[in-house]
Design brief:
This is P2Y purinoceptor 14-like. The protein is mainly alpha-helical. It contains eleven helices and no strands. Helix 1 runs parallel beside helix 9, helix 2 runs antiparallel to helix 3 and helix 7 packs antiparallel against helix 8.
Amino acid sequence: MDYINTTQTAPKDSTNVSSVFTHQVLPVLYTIICACAFILNGLAAWIFLRVPTSSALVVYLKNMVVADVLLLFTYPWRVVAELGYGGLQLKLIVCRYTAVLFYLSMYTGITFMSLISLERYFKIVRNTFGMSFFLQRVSVAKALALLTWAIMMFFMLPNAILTNQPMPKVFSCMVLKSELGRRWHEISAHFNVGVFWVAFLLMMFCYTSIACHVYRSYKRVQQDSSMARWRSNRSIFSLLVVFVFCFVPYHVCRVPYTLSQSHKDYFSAHNRFILFQVKEAMLFMSALNVCLDPVIYFFMCRTFRESLLQKMSSVNRKNKKPSKRHLAQYQQSAMIEQQRKMSITHMQDGKDI
């Protein structure tokens, strides 16, 4: 799972391509999404601080914001390290801390996405089922959120603790790990991949069931409700679209990449190099998730949407400048009003005399 590894084997004619893509193109792309995500997630966090925790959905969405903010914190470190600044000491920080935080935050966010889909399933499809009322309780949602963070930290934090070996001459994140650290790294990597596929299958089941239920409901009503159906589908399936777009490509390409690392004799140096480049590109798509999650908040949480629209409306009113026509009309009205007051004053002066 380490994403700084200078021991990647590549053909000599591919070295320049590797340097351009991984050390020049990707840092620029990460810088762009870091800037965009900082604005979007800062606004999302600011709004959610004012949104009351009144439902299980809001609990999970707030925890997704926390995971995204932690994920966003790792991007500047990666960019600076890939550009070659900071030396080996910075790469050590990335391998030991920020890389671990990156995957911890990413897979925690994936878990909360699956919990949201499960909550939507019980609320829409199984709303009369006893388990539905239990899972929709705020206290239960907070307990599940705390349990999620605890489990993910249990599997991920030892990767930071066990990266404790002396600095090697040829830098590699895996060389920094002890023997137990390399074994735990493998365990945590398999655990994270398992979390993804369980979340993916769970979400596909939940949203397929929701789609069938919504279709049957609209068909039973027998009325023209295409706009209502669009709004319902938009809010429900925005999360699934973001999940598939960001995380599925990375985990699909991760399978051959992992095989190329564990069975190097069956893969040529050129093939291993290509798989590494593809894996890095797909990992960037996963990182893009921090810019797309605010779309989920907007469509799924009515309180968040109303707060955001209200804030934007107030800012527009404050920054809106009057047109020249309105300004001229205002000045003309002011002059007429001033003349009227002067006439009244003159008449009153005449009466007093």
